[in-house]
Specification:
By secondary structure, the protein is of the alpha/beta class. The chain is 41% helix and 26% strand. The strands form 4 sheets. The protein has a 4-stranded parallel beta sheet with strand order 2-1-5-6, sandwiched between helices. It has a 4-stranded mixed beta sheet with strand order 7-12-10-11, with helices on both faces.
Length: 283
């Protein structure tokens, strides 16, 4: 069998649709999940969380990064078919996933490790997915691996993300938002919008409470340059109505949505049901 040129491995947070993953032969390395008492409830993770909530239990998913062995196994399998690999990970400043991939690369033989390129997206979810899509585009142009990596490094600077939760109770329960901040925001009717800055997840805006699609769209319009072509992506925590509403709002600005998918469980299990994420870059 003839070796293919450049293949892609990504952690689960890449959040691309199953169709895109299959069509481009992307290997996904999963996070470790511990559902705890949520295991006993029916449905997907968000249905489980909602059912638990109705019973007075605010439960969240405990997660840990993929192991070194998980990445090493993915690399070895991929290198049987491809001359080189690019591995995309969620930002190293919010997870140890990038380090796991780097350590796995070091355990490969001298010949194999030179064929693996671990890429820290400094982003996650829809943002990480857009960077991986850009890589697919560049690979199809048959560019050299170094040129692709250089272009992707520039692309990071142009890839933006906004995310908002529907209810802060799950982030509060997991210790990611202090109780007094969450309750204070609820009391005065505001919600924070989160985004990546230099790879770190930070609050980038505060908005009055309204539908999450409207909140993200309003903030998005402030940040784009109107005359540039924009490629966007949407992910959501089991909130298809608001994700589709956001897609419709974007279409009114003639903005292409590359994918609109469910956010991966390791992220969605913390931010809770109903959360919405919008990412984009401009050409």
């Amino acid at each position: 069998m003839q070796e293919k040129n450049i293949g892609i491995v990504a952690d689960e947070a890449v959040d691309l649709s199953e169709k895109i993953i299959k069509e481009n032969d992307i290997s996904i390395v999963n996070f470790k999940l511990e559902l705890g008492e949520l295991e006993k409830f029916p449905g997907n993770i968000y249905e489980k969380m909602r059912t638990a909530e109705k019973q007075g239990k605010i439960s969240f998913v405990k997660t840990s990064q993929p192991s070194i062995n998980d990445f090493a196994k993915a690399f070895n399998e991929k290198l049987k078919e491809y001359k080189e690999i690019i591995c995309f990970t969620i930002s190293s400043k919010v997870s140890g996933t990038y380090n796991s991939a780097i350590q796995a690369q070091k355990f490969l033989s001298s010949e194999l490790k030179e064929r693996v390129h671990v890429f820290d997206t400094l982003n996650g979810s829809a943002g990480e997915g857009l960077i991986a899509l850009k890589a697919i585009e560049l690979i199809k142009q048959k560019l050299h691996i170094k040129e692709i990596l250089n272009k992707l490094s520039e692309e990071i600077k142009n890839t933006h993300l906004l995310g908002i939760y529907e209810n802060g109770k799950w982030l509060e329960a997991s210790g990611r938002i202090p109780r007094f901040i969450n309750k204070g925001a609820e009391r005065i009717g505001i919600k924070p919008i989160f985004g990546f800055k230099d790879g770190k997840l930070k609050i980038v805006a505060i908005k009055r409470v309204q539908e999450v699609a409207d909140i993200l769209f309003e903030e998005f319009k402030k940040k784009i340059e109107p005359n540039k072509k924009t490629i966007a992506a949407i992910t959501h925590a089991d909130n298809e109505p608001q994700a589709n509403k956001l897609k419709d709002l974007l279409s009114k600005l003639n903005i292409d949505v590359a994918f609109n998918t469910m956010v991966c469980l390791p992220i969605g299990g913390h931010i809770g049901p109903g959360a919405l994420v919008l990412s984009w870059y401009q050409k």
